[in-house]
Amino acid sequence: MNTIQKRLEKLRQQIEDHNYRYYVLNEPSISDSEYDALFRELQNLESEHPEFIAPDSPTQRVGAPPLEAFGTIIHRVPMLSLENAMNKEELYAFDERVRKILNSSEEITYVAEPKLDGLAVELVYVDGKLTNGSTRGDGITGEDITRNLRTVKSIPLRLRFPFFDEKEKRSPSVVEVRGEIFIEKKGFIQLNKTRLDRGEPPFANPRNAAAGSLRQLDSSITAQRPLKFFCYELGYIEGKSFDSHEEALQTLKSWGLPVNPDIQVCQGIEKATKYYHELEEKRESLPYEIDGVVIKVNSEAERNKLGARSRSPRWAIAGKFKAQQATTIVVDIEASVGRTGAVTPVAYLEPVNVGGVMVSRATLHNQDEIDRKDIRIGDTVLIQRAGDVIPEVIKVILDKRPNGTQPYRLPSTCPICGGDIIRPEDEAVARCQNISCPAQVKGRIEHFASKRSMDIDGLGYKLIDQLVDTGLIHNVADLYSLDVEKVSSLERMAEKSASNLINAIDSSRKTTLVRFIYGLGIRNVGEHLATVLASEFKQLHALMNAELEQLQNIDEVGPIVAESIVKFFKSDDNNNVIQQCLDSGIELEPPPPDYSSQKLSGTTFVFTGSLSSFSRNEAKMMVEAIGGHATNSVSKNTDYLVAGPGAGSKLTKAKELRITILTEEEFLKLIES
Ligand code: IVH
Fold first, then answer.
1. Which residue's alpha carbon is nearest to atom 16 within ligand 1?
2. Residue 233: CB within 6 Å of ligand 1?
3. Which residues contact 652 (CB under 8 A, 6 or more apart)?
4. Is ligand 1 within 6 A of the CB of residue 317?
5. How far is CA 167 from CA 162, 240, 301, in A?
């Protein structure tokens, strides 16, 4: 292997190690930007040397050319489904049956797992490499979705430590595992938001979103979806066996397959039932959706004795939770106005209990969604609640539609300020055009005061309502001219709270440029872009005066974002508010120099032997200028050894540790690139 190949292999190894720490152990050891830097170095090096790109390189998860249709894959061991239990009694009945067949009066050891509400898939690893991935299908044959599954970041493309069997001195050549592909609640909300912004219909729930993403013939679309994977069963394995499910899961985890950390071993059905109840209680706060728990016999020997019926094993059962759907009547539809002036229709419902929570409102997203589902006031609708996602109307029960209903249309004037509501032709969202609309003003102040912007403790939406409604403030800058006297004039406001608020406002004066830019609430500029803009411009005025072209030249800024930035700073109103903020003593700390965008950031160099074109000290400065470090001794953390003539023990050690060794010339080339 030459130097480049070694460096490629080292980078791939490092990235895989970090993936393992992140996705499997849940213990990342580097920051996102350090990870990005490694990834970018690998990408750059591979694009310079395409002849060395490996199919299982971490960069190869972006998707492959679209397919005409999916092929089929026969499961070596059929993928069965599960019998259901609807309550505690049915779980106890399951335990009775198990103990009867096993002829046991002892407590059975169970493994209790969250029943993820996603899609079952099978992964096949041959000699440690992911070769096939498929859907469950009819349990016997499934669809070949290998290309799509390769884009899922938590699925390892190769297994770690090819599991050498100590006794037989060989590794199992085939490992088939089963698990669930799903989308977390957070990712789902974000995904739907993006879709609605683009005028695409939102997914009804995370499960549909995951299913739709896996069914893409174009895997580059799948690659953009926030799919996750947890492994929960072994299908077939050659040359290895396990005594228990617990042991199997532990081993799969050590091989790099993510296993749900919420899985528990339970001694006896009573403990397993307790887990079922506890998880139902915790259901809302879990990051993913579940529709029940799965209770499985732990011992492999007992599983074998129990065997299977035609469609489901006798050693497992699904304990289902109460439904998260219900039907109710739409009493009214109202338009609510957000911070950006976006008008969102909301359905007011006859209150109904959905999976233990009373629901009286549901979002209808936008006019297109109302039209698509034809939702009218008076309709009986099926609604669904999904974790902390706002309840949604799934569909209208047309049989129950009363006579005389009318299709619903969003109002053409703002219900808050009476301003015009306009929906640009190519957008899905209608907006109130009046930037002084109180709904928008309040929304902007709330955003400005929020934790991740100026972090003004204690300034919530109720207080903002009062401050705006009484005319004490009209914009974010007015916050800085408040005093204890003014604030304590508000109803139900004690002097102590007023002075706390003034103190909080005061301390927000010292802040960072990133927070301030983010707090301005420029359309399409979230926290990440605020960081990008701050590191690019360093000073607020430089950003305020930036030309369209200059903005578009920044890597992560597209034409739409560039335009909304320019438009924002063109407005006299906005400039006045910003000036007023600065005049009131706001100090903006520019971001520290950021090396994370450079491909050698974080890499460690050691220099040894005699160097001819630069001194040791110059070498050190060159390395630091690109965000790397230079150290004196070689260790496993060293990335490169630059060796000149006469190199001795450091060179020997670097060779032992398989560290990339560069000549002076190679070093200069590397940092120049
Ligand atoms: S075990 C033979 N474990 O539930 C046992 N399934 O109806 C096979 N599921 O299609 C399944 N979480 O999609 C198992 N921890 C878990 C699960 C789980 C979700 C799904 C899976 C399967 C369905 C069974």
1. 115
2. yes
3. none
4. no
5. 15, 11, 21
Side chain identity at residue 559, one-letter code? P
- DSSP notation for 178-234: EEEEEE-HHHHHHHHHHHHHTTPPPPSSHHHHHHHHHT-SSHHHHTTS-EEEEEEEE
Lowest mean per-residue pLDDT among 17-21, 122-126, 610-614: 610-614
- Whether residue 598 has pLDDT greater than 90: no
114 CA to centre of ligand 1 in angstroms:
9
φ and ψ of 404, to 5 deg: 80, 15
**Residue 250, pLDDT score:** 95
Alpha-carbon torsion, ordered 575, 576, 580, 581, to 10 deg: -30
Q: Please determine, for residue 364, whether its predicted confidence score (pLDDT) is greater than 90.
A: yes
Token pair in block for residue 173: 């050549």
For the segment 547-555, the average pLDDT, to the nearest whole number, is: 91
Q: For 76-88, how does the pLDDT look when each residue is reduced to its tens digit (9 = 90+)?
A: 999 999 999 999 9
Is the per-residue pLDDT at 91 higher than 60?
Answer: yes
**Ligand 1: nearest atom to the Cα of 308:** 2
Separation of alpha carbons 12 and 98, rounded Å: 47
Supply 673's token pair: 């690139």
Give yes or no for a contact between 671 and 622, defined as CB atoms under 8 angstroms apart.
Answer: yes
* Max Cα distance, the chain (Å): 95
Residue 597, pLDDT > 80, answer no
pLDDT higher than threshold 90 for residue 412: yes
The reply to whether ligand 1 has any atom less than 6 angstroms from the CB of 180 is yes
Tokens of 29: 């050891």
In short, whether 232's Cβ falls inside 6 Å of ligand 1 is yes
Q: How many angstroms is it from 121 CA to the middle of ligand 1?
A: 10
Q: Pick the residue whose CA is nearest to atom 6 on ligand 1.
A: 115
- Rounded distance, CA 238 to CA 177, Å? 12
The pTM of the whole model exceeds 0.90: no
Beta-strand runs (E) in 499-574:
510-512
What is the average per-residue pLDDT within 472-492? 95
C-alpha 358 – ligand 1 centre gap (Å): 29
- Each residue's pLDDT tens digit, 457-479: 999 989 999 999 999 999 999 99
Q: Could you tell which of 75, 77, 82, 311 is best to mutate to test the pocket of ligand 1, judged by most ligand atoms within 8 Å of the CB?
A: 82
Residues with a known catalytic role: 115
User: What domains does the chain contain, in order, with CATH numbers?
Assistant: 2-61 (1.10.287.610), 83-320 (3.30.470.30), 325-420 (2.40.50.140), 438-511+528-587 (1.10.150.20), 604-672 (3.40.50.10190)
Tell me the pLDDT band of 32, cut-offs 50, 70 and 90: confident
Which residues are CB-neighbours of 194 under 8 A, at least 6 positions away? none
Q: Does any ligand 1 atom lie closer than 6 A to the CB of residue 481?
A: no
Ranking 42-46, 105-109, 247-251, 646-650 by mean pLDDT, the lowest is 646-650
Nearest to 600 by CA among 59, 37, 10: 37
Q: Is 206 in the pocket of ligand 1 (CB under 6 A)?
A: no
Angle at 631 between CA 625 and CA 633, to 5 degrees: 160
pLDDT tens-digit readout, 528-547: 889 889 989 999 999 999 99
The pLDDT of residue 167? 59
Atom number of ligand 1 nearest to Cα 260: 15
| 115 Cβ inside 6 Å of ligand 1 | yes
Q: Among 2-11, 131-140, 526-535, 664-673, where is mean pLDDT lowest?
A: 664-673
- Beta strands 660-662; 640-643: pairing state: parallel
Amino acid (1-letter code) at residue 179: G
